[in-house]
Amino acid sequence: MKQCDVLLINPPATSAIMPQDQRIIDYFNCISRLDFLGDSDIEPNYGLFSIAAYLKKECAPIRRKLKKSTLTIEYVDLNLYDQNLRAKEKRPINKTDIEKIISGYNCYIAGISFMTVSYGTWAEIIIDEVYKRSNYIFLGGIHPTVRYREIFEKFPAQINGIIIGEGERVFFEIVHEILHNGNNLERIEHLCTIKKVEEDPNVKISPARLDGSFLGNLPNPDYGLLYKQNQEIIARVYSSRGCINDCSICSVGSFFHADCFADPALIDVNILVKKIGELYDQNKIKHFVLGDLDISDKPRLKKFLNGLILLNKQKNIKKDWWCQTRGDSDIIDDTTAKLLKGAGFKQIAIGCEGATDEQLQTINKNEYVSSVKNALTILTQDAGLSTQGYWIIGLPYDDEEKVRKTQKKILEYLEAGIVTVPHITVLVPYPNTELMKNENTNGIRIINWDYKDYWMNCDLYGCGKPVYETIDQSGNTLLTSDQIYTLWIDTLQKVTEFYNNRRKTS
User: Fold this and answer.
1) Which helix (H) or strand (E) holds 101?
2) How do residues 109-124 score in pLDDT, each as one tens digit?
3) Are 415 and 377 in the same domain?
4) Residue 41 counted as domain residue
């Protein structure tokens, strides 16, 4: 059994069953053969890696003062365990697996990061097992941030605290308080405790925000928690945290800011480029991911890309980059696209979402189909980059005719070669998004409140029927959940047929 001061746990991000529908399997097998980078279902939790790196840096002097050894941190990635089981044994991870894995550790402080669907599917099993093996349990991540009171109602005895917002500084304060000061957790500003909830059932804890200066001084994520030096990593880099946009389907605003609007905190470009160089020197890189939710500052982007071009020359770096951004005309132009290519970017992901401007406005996207198409054209035809196009089947107020238009637009872009890889999902009304808070007036009606069913349907091991139906202005049903799901599968089939026919003729 491994003894440690801190145990960090990443839950499975997958359903508890294997996929059954051959049409879904065929689609994901099809796109897996394409030139695909981007968000991977086998990536670890980089937020936990960042917390671990900051803990090691800041706790070292405390431990020396207490005349104790270096802080011991272990990381358990149950999602990677699950992926390995599915690949090797053709089965998903289960309760017995999780109990066996966690029973191999004994820790003082445990930290668990949850998304909405991982909480709904696995929280009870993981929390109950970790409770047997630790003195303290703290939760963090996007779902606990927006549902902390609800979680304490379900786990009043097991959970010692829930970190609201960004976790690096708050988790350090927790460890510092427990190891050095005593046990007055209530003094920690962005930590919700059962005592705070009991004293005020309506307590509102503001999310922790880290400014650009703090982010620039963070050490690189501690990949050594999981990877050996000879193992390749997908290196995830952030030049900012937050997002300047306020799309109604996105939960980012709720995570970063109490009023659901999150101006990004920017890292100095020169510091960022230096950190990338250090990351390259310290690890064997498979490819890089620029994890920003949006690249909206074109002058800053160009400065970063020029710095990256210089770094690549200095260190002879020949690794591919991926990023996502919007299709706004004031972000992607011919000059920026060529700089992206020169800096090593291979694939750019852009949110297309729907086929019409009307559809985009229903989710406060605040961009136009024409500008998205123009950006995709510049990236592919002018700069020679590949692209991912993000699409949603079942947008607010969608009826079958509107979905058919989206299907037609997807195939049109594939035929024109301006989208290389389609990323086709359904809508998810995540907790605390404007879409969830204003359902019935925003073109949807939620019919399922069980978080274990809150799947975007964006990967093979996380699919299910939507938890909503679309409605018109009067509240009449336009598309049922079953109809949206059927249209989603029909879209997958059409895309699969497109690629199969293209392979036959090539």
Assistant:
1) helix 95-102
2) 999 999 999 999 999 9
3) yes
4) yes
